[in-house]
Write a structure and sequence with these properties.
Chain A is an alpha+beta fold. Chain A contains 11 helices and 5 strands; from the N terminus they run H-H-H-E-E-H-H-H-E-H-H-E-E-H-H-H. The longest helix of chain A has 17 residues. The chains are: A alpha+beta, B mainly alpha.
């Protein structure tokens, strides 16, 4: 009988402390900060964090630890997101709703920063004034000075909040434009006559 | 044609379905196997018209813009089809080919379209995590690097707060508010400032150190505020007082030297 009981698994004392720190921390905690506090090497802290994450997952916890741009933080487990999102105003308060145009503008800024509005508009083929305002108000982008050119236009950059919102650790983590171009479907010229009536009526 | 696309863009931005005209064009190219350079004007107008009709948000101005855009597209096309022009362009500026231009713009745009798609997926994934508390998001102020514009606003708000709090005692008075004809009231005269300086000095002599809010306690009129500030700056320049603000937006402490 006793042999069928699962072996009692506990966290290492360091992982336990890290768990407590992340629980108490109001904002993401960097690996370096924890390393200094615990007098450990950053790599040791990192492996403890990974242990903690897999421990929480293995034991079916409702919470997990995730890495974000500013460091590590405690979060709800992925598989309970639907119900947690429906709980009070959690979803509304924590999540930013972005239009397709807003995300595309962010992409252009992320890859070209610092970038002016007219450069963004040139690439997107559309006016971006309002989208930029929205992104600024969500603090997803910030004004990063002015370009030394005629009219000294404002320059825009993405913020840490952008990284946080999209779960990206750094801009360099994003695939390069060349890589994206390779992945994108290429439209070889097709001279296919299109029956307009049929297609547009559909 | 690409100029007309710019106009098409004007109201495209209003609609959620496409992020912009290039998105629409890419979609047309992908889903309908069209060649970007030779997309028929009629098709674009029709598809777009049908698309607009299906969204219930179209205003009169949008419709008028659409009609204008459609007319311009047709006109553009007619011009392009007219004989004689082609040979003219051929010999002079082949790079002016609008088809080529659109193709070039589309190929420059395409990676961003993919990037946006990737980002949307990343966000969707990220949105499945919720955080216990996120105070840094709560008081996350929009970050502007433009001088201290935001700080200035904060100062203004705090002054307004102060005004509200001291409403019963002494509200700020904006002189001549009723008969303000756009002419600012005269600049404070030196005499006024000198008088204020001696006033402050006598206060300092009796009290030791003072707070700006205390100096403004009785007369919160804007002119008095300006005169007081100028007087304090002058006194500081003369080395008679030290002006200290311990914290940002805190009250200002004046101590005699």
């Amino acid at each position: 009988m006793t042999s069928s009981l699962p072996r009692f698994e506990t966290l290492s004392s360091t992982a336990k402390i890290i768990e407590a720190i992340l629980f108490a921390a109001p904002s993401p905690v960097s690996v370096n900060e924890m390393a200094t506090l615990l007098s450990l090497s950053p790599s040791a802290v990192k492996s403890e964090l990974e242990d903690l994450r897999s421990y929480l997952l293995r034991h079916g916890h409702g919470i997990t630890v995730i890495e974000s741009a500013g460091g590590w933080r405690m979060a709800t487990a992925e598989d309970v997101s639907e119900i947690v999102g429906a709980f009070r105003e959690t979803a509304i308060a924590q999540k930013i709703r972005l239009s397709k145009a807003a995300v595309e503008t962010l992409a252009v800024i992320a890859y070209n920063q610092p970038v002016t509005r007219s450069e963004i508009e040139e690439l997107r083929g559309v006016r971006c004034e309002r989208v930029i305002e929205t992104l600024l108000s969500h603090a997803l982008i910030r004004i990063a000075g002015r370009r030394k050119a005629t009219g000294s236009p404002l320059l825009y950059r993405t913020t840490d909040r952008f990284l946080e919102t999209f779960g990206v650790l750094s801009i360099s983590e994003l695939p390069t434009l060349e890589e994206l171009d390779e992945l994108a479907p290429v439209d070889e010229p097709h001279f296919v006559p299109v029956d307009e009536e049929e297609r547009t009526n559909g | 044609m690409e100029e007309r696309l710019g106009e098409l863009a004007e109201f495209q931005a209003e609609i959620d379905g496409f992020s912009g005209p290039f998105d629409l064009l890419c979609w047309l190219v992908e889903s309908r196997e069209l060649e970007a350079a030779s997309i028929s004007v009629g098709q674009v107008v029709r598809i777009y018209g049908a698309y607009l009709a299906n969204t219930n948000k179209v205003s009169v101005s949008v419709v008028s813009e659409f009609l204008f855009m459609a007319a311009s597209l047709v006109l553009n096309k007619i011009r392009a089809l007219l004989p004689g022009r082609e040979s003219l362009y051929e010999s002079e500026e082949p790079e002016n080919d609008p088809g080529e231009d659109v193709l070039e713009k589309l190929s420059r745009y395409r990676p961003y379209r993919s990037a946006a798609r990737d980002l949307a997926i990343l966000k969707e994934e990220r949105d499945r995590f919720f955080f216990r508390s996120a105070p840094e998001e709560e008081d996350d102020e929009p970050s502007f690097d433009l001088g201290d514009l935001f700080a200035l606003c904060r100062l203004w708000w705090s002054l307004r707060d102060l005004k509200r709090r001291t409403k019963n005692a002494a509200p700020y008075i904006f002189e001549n508010e009723d008969d303000w004809s756009g002419v600012p009231s005269s600049l404070p005269e030196e005499e006024q400032i000198e008088r204020k300086i001696s006033e402050i000095l006598s206060e300092l002599n009796s009290d030791g150190s003072l707070r700006l809010s205390f100096l403004l306690r009785e007369n919160r009129a804007m002119a008095n505020f300006v005169v007081t500030l100028l007087a304090l700056l002058e006194m500081s320049r003369m080395g008679r007082i030290r002006i200290l603000q311990e914290e940002l937006f805190d009250d200002i402490v004046i101590t005699p030297l």
